[in-house]
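Hi D.,

Good news: the full-assembly prediction came through. Inputs first.
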Amino acid sequence: MANVLDLRRRIRSVKNTRQITKAMKMVSAAKLRRAQERALQARPYAKMITSVLESLTRRIDIFDETTGNLKHPLFVTRPEKRILLIIVSGDKGFAGAFNANILKAAFQFITGNTDKQIDIEAVGRKGRDMMRRRYPVAVYTEQTDDQGVARQVRDRKAPVEVTGDHPGMLLKLEQGRVHELAESVIARYVHEEIDAVYIVYNEFKSVISQRLVVERLLPLMKIGIPQITGAVEPTTEERERAAEAALSAGIEIEAVDTAEADDEAKKFGTANVDYIYEQPAEELFAGLLPQYVFSMLYHAMTESVAAEHAARMTAMDSATNNASDMIDSLTLHMNRVRQAAITKEIIEIVSGAAAL
Amino acid sequence: MAEETNQLRIRLVTPERTMFEHAATAVELPAKNGYFEVLYGHAPLVAELGAGDVIVHCGADIADGSTAGASRYNVSWGFVEVLPDRVTILASDALKPEEIDVPRAEQQLDRGQKMWKEAGESEDAYTDALRVISEAEAKIASAHEKA
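Then the structure:
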């Protein structure tokens, strides 16, 4: 049986741990608040892009007369043989099952599409590390064609390869880097290197309303409607835990009401008037589409960042609670041991006196 | 009181945030094919923006030709919707002139010129280079304008 001194040491160490987890929880709560703010501020732009595109699609001259489809390479659907999968995970651990869940969804997607070639683009350090361990990195070799122009040639060895990673992109979310990613994705799609683009990320509307989704980014089908192909809702228990953690950290549980601002934004470019289009409608449309893809990506990332902080906050809140429970039980145990020792000593003294 | 009511509501929105929301008498916009100015009562219009300065005139400065009451924002690429009483600018990137990092813009200009030289036969490469160059030039010009 442990003695009182050992128990006291253990209690002290658990107390220190509790201090750390508590601090981490508060830091995550502050970061979550900022991330939510940013996600909110990014909303008007995304909404406006969507609404102006919608209004442009209503104009007949963008449509192809023969097929009835929109005349733009991003609307072209091909049989899905080569898929690009963008995995948005966290950059750091200590966030409960956040990263594990995202990776699980990603692996499910990969194993569900074994007959196709999949390229992986990992955003976030955790996802990158995991994917790199499992799958080979794509190899490019430079070749010169008959016109003497050097170009990169892909030499595919495995059905699943990692084509790029972006560690640290989420730590300081800059639109420049997201832009680069969006452009590279679009270029690959337009050059028919890939037939579809999917993204796995954690959607986050508020602390209690979030889910893990697999969304199809390209080809575009209809502007403004996300093509969710798979979603994992959190369990009621998880949701309650998150709400509890948010409450104790002073975070708003419900999503902030932005209906008014959203309505305002939706009006962009859709007023019921005959617009003068400074450039031909097709040109405007072609200019707007990359922005639309960018805003979808940016949206996914801002939400994922918020979700990561929320997950970390919840995990750290649980850890703090567990530490408190542990301290309680250890203190109880310590007192018992002390009592037992005292009782034992008294018995010894009493029986010693009786023997005299 | 005619002047009070004949005001445009200008909004400048970037992917990160709403930069600016204000009433103004006129606004100058850098469309892709040249600058244009919008006054109250303009016909509805949608245009793509290039790289350049958005100048918002808030007062009587138009009459005397000074730019005292005007605020200037450097924007790169975007779209604008003009309605008779409302102008909404969607910019990919917007900066106040004092926020412009001139050395960085100059580096960008050098990079653009290098891209231009190396573009070879490819038309896309020229377009890309031109984008970089015009963005850098607009930034430098707008930074100098302020100074």
